[in-house]
Every structure is written in structure tokens, then in C-alpha cells.
Design brief:
80% of the residues lie in helices and 0% in strands. It is an all-alpha fold.
Amino acid sequence: MTNSQTFDYIRLILEKDFFAAYMRFVRFGLLQYELTNIIELCSPLMTGLAADDQYLRLEVKSTIANYLLEY
């Protein structure tokens, strides 16, 4: 995936599956910053995988959930 595809993919997962956190980031103007942090954590997962890979989505969701627990 390209960088813009990765950004959009992770943003959509955050918005759909973690809506409260997504809206909190939007309200406080932190969405770009937090997405950058999450993308950095997910970058090893994104190498060579397609956005429609079901395991990729589960791994990304797990990574986001862990990130939000530490937030």
C-alpha cells in the first residue's frame, strides 16, 4: 500500500471501529498526529499486504486497541 492508502485505511478503521476515540482526536485537533503514531506502529504489518486482507484488518484493529489503552 502507498502512504496515502495506508493513512486512509487506518483512518477508516479508527473511525468505524473506535468512533469515540476518533471523534475525541478530531475535537482536539489531534487526528493527524495520532494517525501518524498509529501508522508508525502498523508499518511492519502493512508491508506487502492488500487492504482487503482480513488478517491485516484484525491486526490493525488490535494495534489500535493497544495504542488507545496506553493513551
